[in-house]
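ingest -> validate -> predict -> emit
validate: passed (alphabet ok, no gaps, 129 aa)
predict: started
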Amino acid sequence: MVLGDSTTVGVGDPVRGGWRGVGPLLAAAFPGARYVNPSFQGARVASVRFEQLPVALRARPDAAVVLVGMNDTLRSDFDPVRVHEDLDAVVGELTRAGARVVTVRFHDHSRVFRLPGRCGGRCRRGWPS
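emit:
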């Protein structure tokens, strides 16, 4: 199971005939494993929680990779507390359902993208824990 945004879909990682991305790479690394990827381009952490998580729970995965957050930090309504709450809920539900969960931490977006002052400042200072 892979949950997330365009990174898990593969946008930005073109191959002949489509996109490769994190999800398809993981699926290829585990031949014979059942692979489900409800990720979609533009997803935010709340999208994973309320749209993708129900799909994941119905699939009853043994393992899940959660890779999301870029779209949240690039929006003017970015709320690190809300992101934390949503991620905690996603990981908690998957874990309670018996899945082993891997989360992926993004780099400091403010070093790669031109972020609005408020978002860039939060990235440089770190999110509240």
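The beta strands are 2-4, 14-15, 18-19, 63-67, 100-103.
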